[in-house]
Design a protein that fits this description.
The complex is a heterodimer. Chain A is α+β, with helices and mostly antiparallel strands. Chain A is built from 9 helices and 4 strands. In chain A, strands 2-3-1-4 form a 4-stranded antiparallel β-sheet. In chain A, α6 packs parallel to α9 and α8 runs antiparallel to α9. The longest helix of chain A is centred in the middle third of the chain and has 43 residues. Chain A is elongated, with a radius of gyration of 30 Å. In chain B, the strands form 2 sheets. Chain B has a 6-stranded mixed β-sheet with strand order 6-7-8-3-9-10, with helices on both faces. In chain B, strands 2-1-4-5 form a 4-stranded antiparallel β-sheet, covered by helices on one side. Chain B is 35% helix and 25% strand. In chain B, α4 packs across α5. Chain B has 8 helices and 10 strands. Classes of the chains: A alpha+beta, B alpha/beta. The interface between A and B is medium-sized, with 18 and 22 residues.
Chain lengths: 294, 235
Protein backbone atom coordinates (compact mmCIF):
# COMPACT_ATOMS: atom_id res chain seq x y z
CA UNK A 1 0.00 0.00 0.00
CA UNK A 2 1.25 3.40 -0.90
CA UNK A 3 1.96 6.13 1.60
CA UNK A 4 -0.71 8.51 0.28
CA UNK A 5 -3.29 5.76 0.47
CA UNK A 6 -2.28 5.06 4.07
CA UNK A 7 -2.64 8.76 4.80
CA UNK A 8 -6.07 8.81 3.23
CA UNK A 9 -7.12 5.76 5.22
CA UNK A 10 -5.94 7.12 8.58
CA UNK A 11 -7.55 10.49 7.87
CA UNK A 12 -10.86 8.89 6.93
CA UNK A 13 -10.72 6.70 10.04
CA UNK A 14 -10.20 9.75 12.25
CA UNK A 15 -13.02 11.63 10.52
CA UNK A 16 -15.33 8.64 10.99
CA UNK A 17 -14.51 8.47 14.68
CA UNK A 18 -15.10 12.19 15.09
CA UNK A 19 -18.35 12.30 13.13
CA UNK A 20 -19.71 9.65 15.40
CA UNK A 21 -18.18 11.11 18.53
CA UNK A 22 -20.91 10.22 21.03
CA UNK A 23 -21.07 6.58 20.05
CA UNK A 24 -17.29 6.48 19.80
CA UNK A 25 -16.99 7.78 23.36
CA UNK A 26 -19.56 5.29 24.58
CA UNK A 27 -17.57 2.48 22.99
CA UNK A 28 -14.34 3.82 24.44
CA UNK A 29 -16.05 3.75 27.86
CA UNK A 30 -17.04 0.12 27.44
CA UNK A 31 -13.59 -0.84 26.26
CA UNK A 32 -12.07 1.02 29.23
CA UNK A 33 -14.35 -0.82 31.65
CA UNK A 34 -13.52 -4.17 30.06
CA UNK A 35 -9.84 -3.33 30.13
CA UNK A 36 -9.96 -2.42 33.82
CA UNK A 37 -11.52 -5.77 34.61
CA UNK A 38 -9.07 -7.49 32.28
CA UNK A 39 -6.25 -5.65 34.02
CA UNK A 40 -7.48 -6.66 37.47
CA UNK A 41 -7.66 -10.29 36.45
CA UNK A 42 -4.31 -10.09 34.78
CA UNK A 43 -2.76 -8.63 37.92
CA UNK A 44 -4.45 -11.19 40.14
CA UNK A 45 -3.13 -13.91 37.85
CA UNK A 46 0.38 -12.53 37.90
CA UNK A 47 0.36 -12.21 41.68
CA UNK A 48 -1.12 -15.65 42.17
CA UNK A 49 1.52 -17.36 40.13
CA UNK A 50 4.18 -15.25 41.83
CA UNK A 51 2.98 -16.33 45.26
CA UNK A 52 2.50 -19.98 44.41
CA UNK A 53 6.01 -19.95 43.03
CA UNK A 54 7.27 -18.69 46.40
CA UNK A 55 5.27 -21.37 48.18
CA UNK A 56 6.71 -24.06 45.94
CA UNK A 57 10.24 -22.97 46.73
CA UNK A 58 9.70 -23.38 50.46
CA UNK A 59 10.73 -26.65 52.12
CA UNK A 60 8.13 -29.34 51.96
CA UNK A 61 8.80 -30.97 55.26
CA UNK A 62 10.84 -29.86 58.21
CA UNK A 63 11.59 -31.86 61.37
CA UNK A 64 12.35 -29.80 64.49
CA UNK A 65 14.30 -31.36 67.35
CA UNK A 66 13.59 -30.41 70.93
CA UNK A 67 15.87 -27.44 71.82
CA UNK A 68 17.34 -29.07 74.91
CA UNK A 69 18.80 -32.08 73.07
CA UNK A 70 22.54 -32.50 72.99
CA UNK A 71 24.57 -33.32 69.89
CA UNK A 72 24.47 -37.09 70.49
CA UNK A 73 20.73 -37.15 70.62
CA UNK A 74 20.52 -35.05 67.48
CA UNK A 75 22.81 -37.52 65.74
CA UNK A 76 20.44 -40.34 66.72
CA UNK A 77 17.58 -38.52 65.10
CA UNK A 78 19.68 -37.89 62.00
CA UNK A 79 20.45 -41.59 61.82
CA UNK A 80 16.77 -42.45 62.04
CA UNK A 81 16.01 -40.11 59.20
CA UNK A 82 18.90 -41.40 57.16
CA UNK A 83 17.71 -44.98 57.54
CA UNK A 84 14.21 -44.16 56.47
CA UNK A 85 13.99 -45.43 52.85
CA UNK A 86 11.13 -43.10 52.08
CA UNK A 87 13.39 -40.06 52.54
CA UNK A 88 15.10 -39.00 49.38
CA UNK A 89 17.29 -36.27 50.77
CA UNK A 90 17.67 -34.32 53.96
CA UNK A 91 19.48 -31.18 55.00
CA UNK A 92 20.76 -30.42 58.44
CA UNK A 93 19.95 -26.94 59.74
CA UNK A 94 22.05 -25.97 62.75
CA UNK A 95 20.94 -23.60 65.51
CA UNK A 96 23.20 -20.93 64.08
CA UNK A 97 21.81 -21.27 60.59
CA UNK A 98 18.28 -21.15 61.93
CA UNK A 99 19.08 -17.93 63.73
CA UNK A 100 20.61 -16.42 60.60
CA UNK A 101 17.52 -17.33 58.65
CA UNK A 102 15.27 -15.85 61.29
CA UNK A 103 17.28 -12.64 61.25
CA UNK A 104 17.04 -12.53 57.50
CA UNK A 105 13.27 -13.02 57.53
CA UNK A 106 12.79 -10.32 60.13
CA UNK A 107 14.92 -7.88 58.20
CA UNK A 108 14.81 -4.48 59.85
CA UNK A 109 12.99 -5.86 62.84
CA UNK A 110 15.83 -8.24 63.80
CA UNK A 111 16.58 -6.36 67.00
CA UNK A 112 13.58 -8.22 68.44
CA UNK A 113 15.74 -11.34 68.80
CA UNK A 114 18.98 -9.50 69.31
CA UNK A 115 19.50 -10.57 72.89
CA UNK A 116 18.72 -14.21 72.37
CA UNK A 117 21.44 -16.78 72.09
CA UNK A 118 21.86 -19.59 69.61
CA UNK A 119 19.97 -21.97 71.86
CA UNK A 120 16.77 -20.08 71.24
CA UNK A 121 16.05 -21.92 67.99
CA UNK A 122 16.06 -25.71 67.63
CA UNK A 123 18.10 -27.81 65.25
CA UNK A 124 16.03 -29.01 62.29
CA UNK A 125 16.16 -31.22 59.22
CA UNK A 126 14.65 -30.27 55.88
CA UNK A 127 13.40 -33.42 54.22
CA UNK A 128 12.60 -34.28 50.66
CA UNK A 129 10.50 -37.35 50.02
CA UNK A 130 10.67 -39.92 47.26
CA UNK A 131 6.95 -40.08 47.02
CA UNK A 132 4.64 -37.34 48.24
CA UNK A 133 1.82 -39.83 48.75
CA UNK A 134 3.70 -41.34 51.68
CA UNK A 135 3.99 -37.95 53.35
CA UNK A 136 1.38 -38.63 56.03
CA UNK A 137 3.00 -41.92 57.13
CA UNK A 138 6.42 -40.33 57.19
CA UNK A 139 5.16 -37.47 59.32
CA UNK A 140 3.71 -39.84 61.93
CA UNK A 141 6.79 -42.06 62.02
CA UNK A 142 9.10 -39.07 62.33
CA UNK A 143 6.99 -37.71 65.16
CA UNK A 144 7.45 -41.01 66.95
CA UNK A 145 11.24 -40.62 67.06
CA UNK A 146 12.39 -39.67 70.51
CA UNK A 147 13.46 -36.05 70.85
CA UNK A 148 11.53 -34.78 67.86
CA UNK A 149 9.48 -31.78 68.89
CA UNK A 150 7.49 -30.96 65.82
CA UNK A 151 7.17 -31.90 62.16
CA UNK A 152 6.00 -29.20 59.83
CA UNK A 153 4.49 -30.45 56.65
CA UNK A 154 3.21 -27.78 54.29
CA UNK A 155 2.68 -29.74 51.09
CA UNK A 156 -1.00 -30.24 51.76
CA UNK A 157 -1.60 -26.54 52.21
CA UNK A 158 0.46 -25.84 49.12
CA UNK A 159 -1.64 -28.31 47.16
CA UNK A 160 -4.84 -26.63 48.28
CA UNK A 161 -3.49 -23.20 47.43
CA UNK A 162 -2.33 -24.44 44.05
CA UNK A 163 -5.70 -26.00 43.36
CA UNK A 164 -7.49 -22.79 44.26
CA UNK A 165 -5.04 -20.81 42.18
CA UNK A 166 -5.69 -22.99 39.15
CA UNK A 167 -9.44 -22.55 39.43
CA UNK A 168 -9.12 -18.81 39.93
CA UNK A 169 -6.96 -18.64 36.81
CA UNK A 170 -9.48 -20.63 34.77
CA UNK A 171 -12.30 -18.40 36.02
CA UNK A 172 -10.25 -15.35 35.15
CA UNK A 173 -9.59 -16.49 31.63
CA UNK A 174 -13.25 -17.33 31.03
CA UNK A 175 -14.43 -13.97 32.33
CA UNK A 176 -11.80 -12.12 30.31
CA UNK A 177 -12.87 -13.87 27.14
CA UNK A 178 -16.55 -13.10 27.75
CA UNK A 179 -15.79 -9.46 28.49
CA UNK A 180 -13.64 -9.06 25.42
CA UNK A 181 -16.31 -10.56 23.20
CA UNK A 182 -18.82 -8.13 24.68
CA UNK A 183 -16.44 -5.20 24.08
CA UNK A 184 -15.87 -6.38 20.53
CA UNK A 185 -19.56 -6.46 19.74
CA UNK A 186 -20.06 -3.02 21.19
CA UNK A 187 -17.28 -1.65 18.99
CA UNK A 188 -18.77 -3.51 16.06
CA UNK A 189 -22.11 -1.87 16.76
CA UNK A 190 -20.57 1.59 16.79
CA UNK A 191 -18.80 0.96 13.52
CA UNK A 192 -22.04 -0.40 12.12
CA UNK A 193 -23.60 3.02 12.70
CA UNK A 194 -20.82 4.69 10.70
CA UNK A 195 -21.04 2.08 8.00
CA UNK A 196 -24.80 2.47 7.84
CA UNK A 197 -24.54 6.24 7.60
CA UNK A 198 -22.07 5.82 4.76
CA UNK A 199 -23.58 2.84 2.96
CA UNK A 200 -24.42 4.97 -0.07
CA UNK A 201 -20.86 6.21 -0.19
CA UNK A 202 -19.60 2.65 0.06
CA UNK A 203 -21.74 1.55 -2.88
CA UNK A 204 -20.55 4.53 -4.95
CA UNK A 205 -16.97 3.63 -4.14
CA UNK A 206 -17.60 0.09 -5.26
CA UNK A 207 -19.09 1.31 -8.55
CA UNK A 208 -16.10 3.42 -9.40
CA UNK A 209 -13.77 0.53 -8.75
CA UNK A 210 -12.54 0.78 -5.15
CA UNK A 211 -11.16 -2.48 -3.81
CA UNK A 212 -12.72 -4.06 -0.73
CA UNK A 213 -9.68 -3.25 1.36
CA UNK A 214 -9.63 0.37 0.30
CA UNK A 215 -13.17 0.66 1.67
CA UNK A 216 -12.57 -1.53 4.69
CA UNK A 217 -9.41 0.05 6.08
CA UNK A 218 -10.85 3.39 7.31
CA UNK A 219 -13.44 1.50 9.34
CA UNK A 220 -10.80 -0.75 10.80
CA UNK A 221 -8.78 2.32 11.71
CA UNK A 222 -11.86 3.67 13.47
CA UNK A 223 -12.23 0.44 15.43
CA UNK A 224 -8.57 0.37 16.33
CA UNK A 225 -8.67 3.99 17.53
CA UNK A 226 -11.58 3.16 19.83
CA UNK A 227 -9.87 0.00 21.06
CA UNK A 228 -6.55 1.71 21.71
CA UNK A 229 -7.98 4.77 23.45
CA UNK A 230 -10.08 2.52 25.66
CA UNK A 231 -7.05 0.37 26.44
CA UNK A 232 -4.89 3.41 27.25
CA UNK A 233 -7.43 4.87 29.69
CA UNK A 234 -7.94 1.45 31.23
CA UNK A 235 -4.21 1.04 31.68
CA UNK A 236 -3.83 4.39 33.45
CA UNK A 237 -6.73 3.62 35.79
CA UNK A 238 -5.38 0.16 36.58
CA UNK A 239 -1.89 1.49 37.29
CA UNK A 240 -3.21 4.09 39.73
CA UNK A 241 -5.46 1.59 41.51
CA UNK A 242 -2.71 -1.00 41.79
CA UNK A 243 -0.23 1.54 43.10
CA UNK A 244 -2.64 2.48 45.88
CA UNK A 245 -3.90 -0.99 46.75
CA UNK A 246 -0.75 -3.11 46.55
CA UNK A 247 1.00 -1.21 49.36
CA UNK A 248 -2.00 -1.57 51.64
CA UNK A 249 -2.29 -5.29 50.99
CA UNK A 250 1.38 -5.91 51.58
CA UNK A 251 1.12 -3.80 54.72
CA UNK A 252 -1.90 -5.64 56.06
CA UNK A 253 -1.05 -9.20 55.04
CA UNK A 254 2.58 -10.14 55.43
CA UNK A 255 2.18 -13.54 53.88
CA UNK A 256 1.30 -12.16 50.45
CA UNK A 257 4.09 -10.75 48.41
CA UNK A 258 2.80 -8.35 45.74
CA UNK A 259 4.58 -8.00 42.44
CA UNK A 260 5.61 -4.40 41.94
CA UNK A 261 4.00 -2.39 39.17
CA UNK A 262 7.25 -1.91 37.28
CA UNK A 263 7.78 -5.66 37.09
CA UNK A 264 4.76 -6.36 34.94
CA UNK A 265 4.14 -3.01 33.33
CA UNK A 266 5.51 -4.25 30.02
CA UNK A 267 3.35 -7.34 29.96
CA UNK A 268 0.25 -5.34 30.80
CA UNK A 269 1.03 -2.58 28.29
CA UNK A 270 1.57 -5.00 25.45
CA UNK A 271 -1.44 -7.09 26.36
CA UNK A 272 -3.63 -4.01 26.51
CA UNK A 273 -2.39 -2.54 23.25
CA UNK A 274 -2.72 -5.86 21.46
CA UNK A 275 -6.16 -6.62 22.86
CA UNK A 276 -7.32 -3.08 22.05
CA UNK A 277 -6.17 -3.37 18.46
CA UNK A 278 -7.53 -6.86 17.95
CA UNK A 279 -11.00 -6.25 19.37
CA UNK A 280 -11.24 -2.93 17.53
CA UNK A 281 -10.21 -4.40 14.20
CA UNK A 282 -12.36 -7.50 14.57
CA UNK A 283 -15.34 -5.46 15.70
CA UNK A 284 -15.24 -3.32 12.58
CA UNK A 285 -14.47 -6.22 10.29
CA UNK A 286 -17.67 -7.90 11.48
CA UNK A 287 -19.80 -4.86 10.75
CA UNK A 288 -18.63 -3.99 7.23
CA UNK A 289 -18.80 -7.46 5.77
CA UNK A 290 -22.46 -7.14 4.87
CA UNK A 291 -22.13 -3.84 3.02
CA UNK A 292 -19.24 -4.79 0.80
CA UNK A 293 -21.27 -7.04 -1.46
CA UNK A 294 -22.37 -4.76 -4.29
CA UNK B 1 -15.70 -4.17 -26.70
CA UNK B 2 -18.88 -5.60 -25.19
CA UNK B 3 -20.18 -8.98 -26.17
CA UNK B 4 -23.09 -11.05 -24.87
CA UNK B 5 -22.96 -14.68 -25.91
CA UNK B 6 -26.32 -16.40 -25.49
CA UNK B 7 -26.82 -14.81 -22.12
CA UNK B 8 -29.75 -15.83 -19.98
CA UNK B 9 -30.35 -14.28 -16.60
CA UNK B 10 -32.84 -15.71 -14.19
CA UNK B 11 -33.15 -14.11 -10.77
CA UNK B 12 -33.51 -16.30 -7.70
CA UNK B 13 -37.20 -15.33 -7.45
CA UNK B 14 -37.85 -16.95 -10.84
CA UNK B 15 -38.03 -13.80 -12.99
CA UNK B 16 -36.30 -14.33 -16.30
CA UNK B 17 -34.75 -10.94 -17.12
CA UNK B 18 -32.82 -11.93 -20.23
CA UNK B 19 -33.45 -14.82 -22.61
CA UNK B 20 -30.62 -16.01 -24.82
CA UNK B 21 -29.35 -12.54 -25.66
CA UNK B 22 -26.56 -12.05 -28.21
CA UNK B 23 -25.06 -8.61 -28.67
CA UNK B 24 -21.80 -7.38 -30.06
CA UNK B 25 -20.80 -3.78 -29.52
CA UNK B 26 -17.65 -2.72 -31.31
CA UNK B 27 -15.05 -0.23 -30.16
CA UNK B 28 -16.13 3.35 -30.85
CA UNK B 29 -19.83 2.53 -31.09
CA UNK B 30 -22.59 4.69 -29.67
CA UNK B 31 -25.47 2.45 -28.68
CA UNK B 32 -28.89 3.18 -27.22
CA UNK B 33 -30.56 0.38 -25.35
CA UNK B 34 -34.27 1.08 -25.27
CA UNK B 35 -37.24 -0.73 -23.88
CA UNK B 36 -39.97 -0.39 -21.27
CA UNK B 37 -39.27 -0.73 -17.56
CA UNK B 38 -38.63 -4.29 -16.55
CA UNK B 39 -37.61 -5.24 -20.09
CA UNK B 40 -34.10 -6.22 -19.03
CA UNK B 41 -32.14 -3.03 -19.78
CA UNK B 42 -30.86 -2.62 -16.26
CA UNK B 43 -30.02 -6.29 -16.04
CA UNK B 44 -27.82 -5.92 -19.10
CA UNK B 45 -25.91 -3.08 -17.50
CA UNK B 46 -25.67 -4.99 -14.23
CA UNK B 47 -24.13 -7.90 -16.10
CA UNK B 48 -21.59 -5.58 -17.72
CA UNK B 49 -20.64 -4.16 -14.30
CA UNK B 50 -20.70 -7.62 -12.77
CA UNK B 51 -23.24 -6.58 -10.23
CA UNK B 52 -24.99 -9.76 -11.32
CA UNK B 53 -23.73 -12.92 -12.96
CA UNK B 54 -25.46 -14.50 -15.97
CA UNK B 55 -27.28 -17.75 -15.34
CA UNK B 56 -26.19 -19.05 -18.74
CA UNK B 57 -23.86 -17.72 -21.41
CA UNK B 58 -20.90 -15.39 -21.23
CA UNK B 59 -20.30 -11.66 -21.07
CA UNK B 60 -17.11 -10.04 -22.35
CA UNK B 61 -16.24 -6.43 -21.52
CA UNK B 62 -13.02 -4.61 -22.38
CA UNK B 63 -11.28 -7.90 -22.90
CA UNK B 64 -12.39 -9.27 -19.51
CA UNK B 65 -14.43 -12.43 -19.44
CA UNK B 66 -16.81 -10.89 -16.94
CA UNK B 67 -18.68 -14.08 -16.15
CA UNK B 68 -15.45 -15.77 -15.08
CA UNK B 69 -14.06 -12.81 -13.13
CA UNK B 70 -13.23 -13.39 -9.48
CA UNK B 71 -14.68 -11.11 -6.84
CA UNK B 72 -11.24 -9.67 -6.17
CA UNK B 73 -10.84 -8.65 -9.81
CA UNK B 74 -14.14 -6.74 -10.08
CA UNK B 75 -12.66 -3.37 -9.02
CA UNK B 76 -10.19 -3.51 -11.90
CA UNK B 77 -12.94 -4.21 -14.40
CA UNK B 78 -14.92 -1.24 -13.07
CA UNK B 79 -11.90 1.04 -13.26
CA UNK B 80 -11.61 0.26 -16.95
CA UNK B 81 -15.07 1.66 -17.61
CA UNK B 82 -16.92 4.82 -16.62
CA UNK B 83 -20.45 4.68 -15.27
CA UNK B 84 -23.12 7.36 -15.00
CA UNK B 85 -26.38 6.78 -13.16
CA UNK B 86 -29.81 8.34 -13.19
CA UNK B 87 -29.39 9.54 -9.59
CA UNK B 88 -25.83 10.90 -10.16
CA UNK B 89 -24.35 9.12 -7.10
CA UNK B 90 -21.97 11.86 -6.06
CA UNK B 91 -20.41 11.99 -2.59
CA UNK B 92 -22.32 14.81 -0.85
CA UNK B 93 -19.56 15.92 1.51
CA UNK B 94 -16.89 16.20 -1.12
CA UNK B 95 -16.55 19.13 -3.51
CA UNK B 96 -16.93 18.76 -7.25
CA UNK B 97 -13.16 18.61 -7.59
CA UNK B 98 -12.81 16.03 -4.80
CA UNK B 99 -15.57 13.90 -6.26
CA UNK B 100 -13.76 13.66 -9.56
CA UNK B 101 -10.35 13.28 -7.93
CA UNK B 102 -11.68 10.45 -5.78
CA UNK B 103 -12.06 8.17 -8.80
CA UNK B 104 -8.31 8.54 -9.33
CA UNK B 105 -7.46 8.38 -5.65
CA UNK B 106 -8.89 4.90 -5.30
CA UNK B 107 -6.65 3.70 -8.11
CA UNK B 108 -3.67 5.03 -6.12
CA UNK B 109 -2.83 7.46 -8.92
CA UNK B 110 0.03 9.88 -8.46
CA UNK B 111 -0.96 13.28 -7.00
CA UNK B 112 0.65 14.88 -10.03
CA UNK B 113 -1.60 12.80 -12.26
CA UNK B 114 -4.65 13.81 -10.23
CA UNK B 115 -3.80 17.51 -10.44
CA UNK B 116 -3.55 17.23 -14.21
CA UNK B 117 -6.45 14.95 -15.04
CA UNK B 118 -9.19 16.40 -12.82
CA UNK B 119 -9.19 19.95 -14.27
CA UNK B 120 -9.08 18.49 -17.76
CA UNK B 121 -12.07 16.33 -17.09
CA UNK B 122 -13.98 19.21 -15.47
CA UNK B 123 -13.19 21.43 -18.44
CA UNK B 124 -14.56 18.80 -20.78
CA UNK B 125 -17.98 18.95 -19.11
CA UNK B 126 -17.76 22.74 -18.68
CA UNK B 127 -17.67 22.86 -14.89
CA UNK B 128 -14.20 24.28 -14.23
CA UNK B 129 -15.69 27.27 -12.44
CA UNK B 130 -17.71 25.19 -10.00
CA UNK B 131 -14.85 22.93 -8.91
CA UNK B 132 -15.06 24.03 -5.27
CA UNK B 133 -18.80 23.78 -4.86
CA UNK B 134 -20.61 20.87 -3.26
CA UNK B 135 -23.04 18.66 -5.21
CA UNK B 136 -25.93 20.02 -3.15
CA UNK B 137 -25.27 23.51 -4.51
CA UNK B 138 -25.58 22.40 -8.12
CA UNK B 139 -28.54 21.83 -10.42
CA UNK B 140 -29.41 18.34 -11.57
CA UNK B 141 -27.82 18.84 -14.96
CA UNK B 142 -24.62 20.11 -13.39
CA UNK B 143 -24.52 17.19 -10.97
CA UNK B 144 -24.86 14.79 -13.87
CA UNK B 145 -22.00 16.55 -15.61
CA UNK B 146 -19.86 16.10 -12.50
CA UNK B 147 -20.74 12.41 -12.56
CA UNK B 148 -19.73 12.35 -16.20
CA UNK B 149 -16.44 14.07 -15.43
CA UNK B 150 -15.80 11.46 -12.73
CA UNK B 151 -16.65 8.64 -15.12
CA UNK B 152 -14.25 10.01 -17.72
CA UNK B 153 -11.36 11.06 -15.51
CA UNK B 154 -9.36 7.89 -15.92
CA UNK B 155 -9.93 7.78 -19.67
CA UNK B 156 -12.09 4.66 -19.83
CA UNK B 157 -12.51 2.91 -23.15
CA UNK B 158 -16.16 2.30 -22.36
CA UNK B 159 -18.76 4.62 -20.86
CA UNK B 160 -22.03 3.23 -19.56
CA UNK B 161 -24.96 5.52 -18.81
CA UNK B 162 -28.03 4.15 -17.05
CA UNK B 163 -30.94 6.53 -17.73
CA UNK B 164 -28.57 9.50 -17.48
CA UNK B 165 -31.35 11.98 -18.24
CA UNK B 166 -34.07 10.31 -16.20
CA UNK B 167 -34.04 13.04 -13.55
CA UNK B 168 -33.46 16.00 -15.87
CA UNK B 169 -35.65 18.37 -17.89
CA UNK B 170 -35.59 18.06 -21.70
CA UNK B 171 -33.16 20.93 -22.26
CA UNK B 172 -30.54 19.66 -19.80
CA UNK B 173 -31.08 16.18 -21.13
CA UNK B 174 -29.97 17.39 -24.50
CA UNK B 175 -26.82 18.95 -23.05
CA UNK B 176 -25.90 15.65 -21.45
CA UNK B 177 -26.58 13.76 -24.66
CA UNK B 178 -24.43 16.18 -26.63
CA UNK B 179 -21.64 15.62 -24.14
CA UNK B 180 -21.99 11.86 -24.46
CA UNK B 181 -21.86 12.23 -28.20
CA UNK B 182 -18.70 14.34 -27.92
CA UNK B 183 -17.12 11.74 -25.70
CA UNK B 184 -17.97 9.14 -28.31
CA UNK B 185 -16.32 11.26 -31.01
CA UNK B 186 -13.11 11.10 -28.99
CA UNK B 187 -13.12 7.34 -29.39
CA UNK B 188 -14.87 6.14 -26.26
CA UNK B 189 -17.50 3.45 -26.70
CA UNK B 190 -20.78 4.69 -25.20
CA UNK B 191 -23.76 2.62 -24.11
CA UNK B 192 -26.85 4.51 -23.01
CA UNK B 193 -29.94 2.90 -21.56
CA UNK B 194 -32.87 5.26 -21.90
CA UNK B 195 -36.60 5.85 -22.26
CA UNK B 196 -36.26 9.18 -24.07
CA UNK B 197 -37.94 8.63 -27.42
CA UNK B 198 -37.27 12.11 -28.83
CA UNK B 199 -33.56 11.97 -28.12
CA UNK B 200 -33.09 8.48 -29.53
CA UNK B 201 -35.04 9.35 -32.64
CA UNK B 202 -33.10 12.49 -33.49
CA UNK B 203 -29.59 11.22 -32.67
CA UNK B 204 -29.70 8.47 -35.31
CA UNK B 205 -27.38 6.09 -33.52
CA UNK B 206 -27.44 2.34 -33.19
CA UNK B 207 -30.52 1.26 -31.24
CA UNK B 208 -30.96 -2.05 -29.51
CA UNK B 209 -34.58 -2.53 -28.51
CA UNK B 210 -35.29 -5.05 -25.83
CA UNK B 211 -38.54 -6.33 -24.47
CA UNK B 212 -39.39 -9.06 -21.99
CA UNK B 213 -35.78 -10.14 -21.93
CA UNK B 214 -35.28 -10.56 -25.67
CA UNK B 215 -33.73 -8.35 -28.32
CA UNK B 216 -36.55 -7.30 -30.63
CA UNK B 217 -34.52 -5.00 -32.86
CA UNK B 218 -30.88 -4.08 -33.40
CA UNK B 219 -30.56 -1.34 -35.98
CA UNK B 220 -27.90 1.09 -37.13
CA UNK B 221 -29.20 4.71 -37.19
CA UNK B 222 -32.35 3.44 -35.58
CA UNK B 223 -35.35 4.98 -33.93
CA UNK B 224 -37.02 4.33 -30.63
CA UNK B 225 -39.84 2.88 -32.73
CA UNK B 226 -43.19 1.61 -31.62
CA UNK B 227 -42.78 -2.02 -32.46
CA UNK B 228 -42.11 -2.52 -28.78
CA UNK B 229 -45.78 -1.84 -28.20
CA UNK B 230 -46.71 -3.80 -31.33
CA UNK B 231 -44.60 -6.68 -30.16
CA UNK B 232 -46.58 -6.76 -26.98
CA UNK B 233 -49.82 -6.91 -28.97
CA UNK B 234 -48.59 -9.72 -31.22
CA UNK B 235 -47.27 -11.89 -28.49
Amino acid sequence: MKLRTTKYIVKEGLINTYRNILMSLASVGIVTASMIVLGLFLIISINLSHNTQILKEQPQMQVFCNPELDDEQVKDIEKAIKNDTRVKKYTYVSKKEALEKAKQMLGEDQDVIEGLGEDFLPVSFIIELNNLKEAKDVVSSLKAIEGVGNVRYSQEQIDIVLKIATWVQIGNVTLIIILLIVAMFIISNTIKLTVFARRKEISIMKYIGATDWFIRWPFIVEGVIIGLVGAAIGFVVISIIYGLVSNRITGALNIISMVSLGQFQFVVTYTFALVGIVIGAMGSAISIRKYLHV
Amino acid sequence: MVEFRSVTKEYPNGTVALKDVNINIAKGDFVFIVGPSGSGKSTMLKLILKEEDPTLGEVYVNGYNVSALKRKEIPYLRRSLGVVFQDFRLLPNKTVYENVAFALQITEALPREIRRQVPMSLALVGLSKKANMYPGQLSGGEQQRVALARALVNNPALLIADEPTGNLDPETSWEIMKLLSEVNCRGTTVIVATHEKSIVDSMKKRVIAIDKGSIVRDQEKGQYGDEIKNYQIYS
